[in-house]
Amino acid sequence: MDEVSIIVICGTIIFLLTAGFIISLFYSYKQRLVAYLREKEELKIIFQNEKLKAQLEMQEQTFLSISQEIHDNIGQILSLTRLNISTIKPDDYAATEHKIITSKELLDQAIEDLRDLSKRLNTQFVTQQSLSASLQFQLNLIQKAGYHTTTLEVHGEEEVTLDPEKKLIIFRIAQETFNNILKHAEAKHISVVLVYLPDKTILSIKDDGHGFEVADKVDAQVPVKGIGTYNMYYRARLIGAEFSLQSQPGEGTLAHLVLPATS
């Protein structure tokens, strides 16, 4: 075998090896691309399912609170109005005028309360409003019950470009936090701080309730033991946010969420 043949054979082998390597790289890249697209689609489906779940949970909680509101507030107002009207004495002009004015004020209050209820029945209300407006609306409803005082502080420019779906998830996390406070904390005051920074949005919810040992609710392997609390952690991760609970017995609880601007 002469030198030229050896060179040709070596060149052919190198060519075949190079071609095989390139084909292998291309095939590997294609597989990774397909896996990436599949994972991306699965995450999209998971996010949409979680969004739908959050909407349904929000509606369920809304219906429960509306039922209580109608029974405890609007029903009472209408009963007082009926009582006022039924005790009107046409021959007592001064008392009649006072009862009519009082009845009108009660009906005005009932109408205003019904308007609030209609807003809460609108499933698009949260996504159409700013996050601070939705939080303030929720805090007003809590304070209106008469068992808690509430405050909301907003710092920085309101983020009008915040993704509506992420806004819904953040609001649902806040709503779940409020629900836990109302059910378990025996708190008197709820304070909410919303901070808009160029690179992130921060939401903090603090109560002055009896608090708890975080270790009883949080586990190193399973993020949280309570279903409601687990959902808060899970949904925060789903939108690229960090969520934490800080608490000590007798010192209340702080729920803290940080959403990076690029998430």
Automatic annotation (TrEMBL):
* Gene3D superfamilies with a match to the protein in the record: 1.20.5.1930, Histidine kinase-like ATPase, C-terminal domain (3.30.565.10)
- Keyword Phosphoprotein part of the UniProt annotation: yes
Tell me the InterPro entries matching this sequence: HATPase_C_sf (IPR036890), HATPase_dom (IPR003594), Sensor_HK_TwoCompSys (IPR050482), Sig_transdc_His_kin_sub3_dim/P (IPR011712)
Q: Which GO molecular-function terms appear in the entry?
A: ATP binding; phosphorelay sensor kinase activity; protein dimerization activity
Recorded E.C. number(s)? 2.7.13.3
Assigned keywords, A-Z: ATP-binding, Kinase, Membrane, Nucleotide-binding, Phosphoprotein, Transferase, Transmembrane, Transmembrane helix, Two-component regulatory system
Q: What class of enzyme is it?
A: transferase
State the source organism's domain of life: Bacteria
Q: Which residues cross the membrane?
A: 6-29
Q: Which GO cellular component terms are attached?
A: membrane
Question: What catalytic activity is recorded?
Answer: ATP + protein L-histidine = ADP + protein N-phospho-L-histidine
Residues annotated as domain Histidine kinase/HSP90-like ATPase = 169-262
UniProt domain Signal transduction histidine kinase subgroup 3 dimerisation and phosphoacceptor: residue ranges: 66-122
- Protein name per its UniProtKB record: histidine kinase
Q: Which organism is it from?
A: Adhaeribacter arboris
